[in-house]
Amino acid sequence: MQKYISSHISIAPLVVFRVLFGFIMLVSTIRFAFRGWIYELYIKPDFFFTYYGFDWVQPLGEWGMYTLFFVIGLSALCMMLGYRYRLFSVLFFLCFTYVELIDKTNYLNHYYFVSIISFLLMLVPAHRNFSLDVVRNPSLRLQKVPAWTINIFKLQLGLVYFFAGLAKLNPDWMLHALPLKIWLPAQSHLPLIGWLFEYEWSAFLFSWAGAFYDLTIVFFLLYKPTRWLAYIAVIAFHLMTYFLFQIGMFPFIMILCTLIYFSAEFHQRLIDWAKKGWHFVARRSKQVSNEYSTFAYQPSRLTKKVLATVLVIHFILQVLIPFRFLLYPGHLFWTEQGYRFSWRVMLMEKAGHTIYEVYNPETDRRWEAANYDFLTPNQEKMMATQPDMILQFAHYLENYYQDKGIKDPEIRVKAHVTLNNHKNKLLVDPSVDLTKVKRGFTPKYWLNPFNDNQENWSTRN
Amino acid sequence: MTFFERFTFSALLISSVLLFSSCGGTDSDTDNNSSTVRSDMLEQTANNIILPSYQAFRTEVTSLKEAGDNFAENATEETLTDLQDQLKNTRLAWQHVSLFQFGTAKTVLLRTSANTFPADTDQIEDNIDAGDYTLGSISNQAAAGFPTLGYLLHGQDETNQQILAAYTEAEDAQKRLKYLQDNLSFIANKTSEVVSAWEENEGQNFLNAENAGTDTGSSLGMLVNAMVRHYERFLRDGKVGIPAGVRSAGVPRPTATEAYYGGYSVELALANLEATKRLFTGAGYDGSSGTGLEENLDALGHEELSDDIITELDQAKSALETLQDPLSTQIESNNDPVLTAFQELQQVLTLIKADMTSRLGVTITYQDNDGD
Fold first, then answer.
1. Same domain for A291 and A394?
2. Rounded CA gap, B331 and B95, in Å?
3. A205/B34 Cβ within 8 A
4. Domain identity same for A44 and A135
5. Can you give the C-alpha Rg of chain B in angstroms?
6. Domain count, chain A
7. Cβ-based contacts of A461 with chain B (< 8 Å)
8. Closest-CA distance of chain A to residue B34, Å
9. Cβ–Cβ under 8 Å, residues A205 and B16
10. Considering the entire predicted model, what is its pTM?
11. Taking a C-beta distance cutoff of 8 angstroms, is the pair A213, A164 a contact?
């Protein structure tokens, strides 16, 4: 235990991790801005699906949002360079997380991952070597850090992979090769591997291989003899997902982050190469090996206590949160109660069509809301399959009609949802007036149960 | 462990190669695979549905322009009737292209330009009066295109004699005639731009290998998104739901029908539904059968779903057929069948928007985004 927490080891892996994470975040932020998504996702919509308890997190308007993203990009750059790291790592975590909390529509496991990693980075002295901070103040330079500062990242990544693997151990994924059976044939035009996807066994092969990969990769990365082979598997796996699915930067983030499992010597070599390269570019020659002091990281006792408490709570939550779905009745994929924040990645094919039926008891008139008048196509799509969002939009419509002078509109929903090749059926009980239902974490009694015996479209299933 | 991993890896590789060679031997498999069916479908859609539909539409638009010129040269009740008839033919042909709003059609705003309804009659009269206007500008969206022509050529409860007089005897007759002709040129220019682009390279691009997937930006993705979007907003809502009051707190809006002045709204809706069905079944413009979305679903093992979509399409058609033109009168006198038709159209929407896209692996999103 001592070995993994307080023994002093080289700072090199932590420094490389900081640089690479800052770099990939900078690239991601620039990509996000260039694709016009700041406008599309945070300025254009009229309505935002806030998280329960975080309704105060609101978009900051056009200039506010652009500024926020500028701060995120700048913080990523400063983290990479190790410039005023303490300030910018905190800024990055706060701004990034704020943006993610604005709208559930945009929830992605990899954004959650970024929030967590930046939270952990904020707690460690990742800037105390190979950084502008050290150039400004050489007394900051450290050669060794306590092992926990690096192991928390290994543990976090391990949890991500392991829970992603655990989530795949469900009948649809393992026994029916769903949703890959749907997604892979859609890629059958791809060169080299496309032909594989015409065959049903390839969906099984990929499903099982994916589950095996997620469950075991961390162990192969930890074990030195298998490390390189495992890292090749990491690259192959994530590149495959990059080409097959619209998954953005996530594969590259993971490919870079998993380098943390490599040895201190490996990371030291990376740093030395980088320094040599820099000296070559800057036409300066300097003895590389003499630059390191022998100081070790020694936080105060109070700091230690606070850090230990925060980290213990953090990891207990990390282990418990993915299991919270057990507290809810019903089929997890159907009700999605306890679905988010649990590393359930690319796990199901779900789509829906939501009809909001409005009734004004005063005039005895009925009509339907035009969802597309209020929501972006992306919001409409995400809402169609997620009960908490369906309820939020019902409340939004209630307010909208009340503003129009309808005192007590009743709003019922016909939410047709199809899950993993099952014929669409109603997710929400169509007789429940959603204006009378409160938001919250209690079980959603107003959902229809998912019935395994229901009709099935697919003859192959 | 190294040995174990290497062994597993090699075993997987070898077994996949073996399986491939054994499956590759039988050609029945390769004829039927989803990739081939998908490319057959795209080819059928591009060459035998979209292209001929566009060309037929352009022919009608050209005839419409000629009929307009004839009327301008020699305004008689006969040339007026010809022009009115040709307007109807053109609007019917439009129903077969309106669902393909992607590519140039989208960038030049063909739908908004040609068919924004209801027409803004005040704006039209203001434009005629001022004699100074830019068709295609945002403020003139509802004062241009087919609905405007409908107003100009049919008027509100006017006899053809009265209409003729507006172009011959009225004080602003020349201005009105010019507005009519400017509108005809406006539509003709937009149409030729879109159809030429399709003939020149868009049709080819549509079939390009790099657009062969199902993700956002692929040909199938674009086509299905355009189809569903059109169906939802412009067929179900625009042609039926909105006039029936479904979007206006239950208060019917009979004047919001597509051909309010011409009085053949139901016919147009039926033609549009027919075009949707043809796109789904892969039937060519001449009615010949071919590979469509239906066959795509079948190849993936979802025959039951494609059968259900066809059944629902037919039921929606039957429901529309019970409606009497002019639709505005039907709505005023007996709105219930119109509401029933709306619900029938909606049944189809659920199947194509949720089930069909989900089975095909097409994402319904008109914007690019990451998933996880």
1. no
2. 22
3. no
4. yes
5. 24
6. 2
7. 301
8. 7
9. yes
10. 0.91
11. no
Q: For residue B109, which amino acid is it?
A: L
| HEC profile of B207-258 | CCHHHCCCCCCCHHHHHHHHHHHHHHHHHHHHHHHHHHCCCCCCCCCHHHCC
Whether residue A457 and residue B302 make contact (CB cut-off 8 A), yes or no, is: yes
Q: ipTM for the complex? A: 0.90
DSSP B34-79: HHHHHHHHHHIIIIIIIHHHHHHHHHHHHHHHHHHHHHHHS--HHH
Structure tokens at B105: 């059609």
Q: Residue B23's pLDDT is what?
A: 40
Find out whether A376 and A103 touch, Cβ atoms under 8 Å. Answer: no
> With a CB-CB cutoff of 8 Å, which residues 230-259 of chain A face chain B?
230, 233, 245-250
Restricting to B residues 220-249, those with a Cβ less than 8 Å away from any Cβ of A are 232-233, 237, 241, 245-249
CA distance linking residue B226 with residue A81, whole number of Å: 46
Residue-level pLDDT at A282: 66
Q: What angle do CA B20, B26, B28 make, to 5 degrees?
A: 120
Please report the pLDDT score of residue B371 as a whole number: 66
Q: Cβ of B265 under 8 Å from any chain A Cβ? A: no
Parallel, antiparallel, or unpaired for β A425-426 and A410-419?
Answer: antiparallel
Q: Kindly report, residue by residue over B307-334, the tens digit of the pLDDT.
A: 999 999 999 999 999 999 999 999 999 9
How far, CA to CA in Å, does B57 sit from each of B62, B63, B69, B101, B145? 9, 10, 18, 14, 14
Domain annotation for chain B: domains and CATH numbers:
36-360 (1.20.1420.20)
φ/ψ (deg, to 5) at B200:
-75, -55
Low-confidence spans in chain A with pLDDT less than 50: 285-291, 453-461
Q: Do A185 and B372 touch (CB under 8 A)?
A: no
Q: Could you say which of A286, A307, A323 is where a domain stops?
A: A323
Q: What residues make up the domain containing A118?
A: 2-175+211-239+260-323
- Kindly write down the DSSP assignment for every residue of B277-325, as one continuous string: HHHHHT--TTS-----HHHHHHHTT-HHHHHHHHHHHHHHHHHHHTS-S
> Which residues lie closer than 8 Å to A142 by C-beta, 6 or more apart?
A11, A125, A128, A129, A293, A295, A296, A297
Contact B235, B348 (CB under 8 A): no
- Given a contact cutoff of 8 angstroms between Cβ atoms, the answer to whether B323 and B266 are in contact is yes
Which residues of chain A have a CB within 8 Å of the CB of B301?
458-461
Tell whether A319 and A353 lie within a shared domain. no
Can you say whether residue A440 is alpha, beta or left, with left for phi > 0 and alpha for psi between -120 and 50 degrees? left
Neighbours of A174 (CB within 10 A): 14
A182·B35 Cβ contact <8 A: no
Counted residue by residue, chain B has a size of 372
Structure tokens at A305: 């206590």
**Cis peptide preceding A299, ω within 30 of 0:** no
A134 and A71: one domain? yes
By CB atoms closer than 10 A (0-12, 13-18, 19+), residue B9 is middle
